[in-house]
Amino acid sequence: MANDIAGDLDLDTVFKTRTLAGVSNTCFISVAFSQLSSNQRDTMIKLSNSFNNKKYHRTKSLFMDGKGLDVSGNSLSSIPDVFISDCGKLNGLKKLNFSQNKLSGVLPNFTGFSSLVSLDLSMNYLTVNLDGLIGNFKVLEKLQLSRNHFVGPIPDELFNFQNLTLIDLSVNNISGVLSNSIGDLSKLNTLLLSSNNLSGEIPKSLSNIKTLTRLAANQNSFNGSSSLNGSIPSASIGKLERLTYLELGSNSLSGEIPKELGNCVELALLDLSKGAGQNILSGSIPSGISNLRGLVSVNLQDNELNGSIPDSISNLEFLIELQLGKNCLSSRIPKMPSNLQISLDLSRNCFEGTIPETLGGLRALEVLDISNNKFQGLMTVIDASSSTPPTINTWSKKTSVTLVILIAVICIDLGVAIAITAILVVDSDTSLNSKLSLAVVISVVFDVATAMMILLTS
Questions:
Q1: Strand partners, 143
Q2: Under 8 Å CB-to-CB from 84, ≥6 apart: which residues?
Q3: Among residues 211, 210, 264, 209, which one has the least CA distance to residue 234?
Q4: What does the alpha-carbon distance between residue 286 and residue 307 come to, in Å, rounded to a whole number?
């Protein structure tokens, strides 16, 4: 990318370091000059001096080359006004990184910065409204504000920066709805809105962003009343053919999983689980999911999905995790992808009949959970000599109660039979009370021993 940086230094001076001493007992600020023009060097000296006072004595390092200014990984609690104003005057400044500090309160207005491409203020303690961060960012491509305490809605002015490819507002306290103007950002690749208090429906205008590869808006329901709700816009999702990650778990979404999702042929991760939210997706799992040959992880847990699992799911050869627990799925379990490794969770559904032998052939699988269904019989593990079988949970409350009752009845019958036999074989001269006492003792000892065996085997 072209810039107007002047100067032509050799390799020995590209990373020449100039150290500016601060007030006594304060840390030094090392300023690395690389291909800076004379006016940039003068400005950098002023910027360094602005931190060389007791108020900002925790600064460890400040680095600048011909493209960016990096003050990350320090302990700055605030930024001097003069610092921002002088930065805005730097010709060709493209990157500004204040991440991993201790910034709090209100930031100065970002004036200037007409060449800024990347702004990173993530991992701080900023609590201001996002309106205060909007500057003259005509060519801004990356905006990273995650892991702060930003409040208020997402300002509409943000959607005027049509060169944005990355927006990361995750892990904040941002509220309000996601404006339909998001569709104006036609170059956007990544939109991260997770762990906020956003509400309202998913904008249908997302279909305009053909370049979108990741949409993460999960965990937007912490306070119960503010969460993304409504149905997943089928027409919009179906047009995002480059979408690779779709993370909408822990919200209040309802309706069916759109069949148009099968058009997102690049999809690798799909999370529509209830999680800590109130997702209640219903209907069946669309058969078009088999078109997503690149799927690696699918999480549809804790919804109200019904019907059967599509037979074509076995075609997902890269799938290593499938979470379908806590739904209303029924019918038979089809053959699963042979490369499943992390987990296959089919628990708390309505499956019945015998356990499919094909499940025993998933030799790479670490965890298999088919508990709390209506299965009968035992599971067959295929090729047991090849590797350690997966951890299997097939136990259900209904099965356990029935088994315990059956064993208890058998034990009582056996105990009574043994007691009667004891009475008959005891010497006839023995009194009836002695015979009965002996029978009771034998019956009690037998029942106690049997109960201990039940506890040990259950």
A1: 119, 167
A2: 107, 108, 109, 110, 111
A3: 264
A4: 10
Structure tokens at 404: 């315990």
116 neighbors 138 (Cβ within 8 angstroms): no
Q: What is the DSSP string of 233-276?
A: -HHHHHT-TT--EEE--SSEEEEEPPGGGGG-TT--EEE---TT
Cα 281-285-286 angle, rounded to 5 deg: 115
Return the structure tokens found at 71: 């003050």
pLDDT at position 85: 80
Query: Edge-to-edge strand order for the sheet containing 228-231?
Result: 151-152, 173-177, 197-201, 228-231, 252-256, 280-283, 304-307, 328-329
pLDDT of residue 25: 31
Q: What is the pLDDT of residue 222?
A: 37
DSSP SS3 for 100: coil
Which residues have a Cβ under 8 Å from the Cβ of 302 and sit 6 or more positions away?
273, 274, 275, 279, 325, 326, 327
Angle at 392 between CA 321 and CA 352, to 5 degrees: 90
Amino acid identity at 215: L
Low-confidence ranges of the chain (pLDDT < 50): 1-35, 52-54, 56-59, 222-225, 384, 396-399
User: Residue 107: which of 93, 90, 124 has the closest Cα?
Assistant: 124
DSSP 8-class letter at 129: B
How distant, in Å, are the alpha carbons of 113, 128, 185 from that of 116?
A: 5, 21, 17
* Tally of CA atoms within 13 A in the half-sphere of 134 that contains its CB: 11
Cα gap 443→430, rounded to integer Å: 19
**Residue 51: enclosing H or E segment and its boundaries?**
helix 38-51
169 three-state secondary structure: coil
Calpha distance 331→352 (Å, rounded): 7
Token pair, residue 357, equals 């032998």
> How far is 260 from 448, CA to CA, in rounded Å?
61
Of residues 144, 153, 208, the one with CA closest to residue 182 = 208
Q: How far apart are CA 445 and CA 429, in angstroms?
A: 25
Name the residue among 143, 188, 189 with its Cα closest to residue 170: 143
Q: pTM higher than 0.90, yes or no? A: no
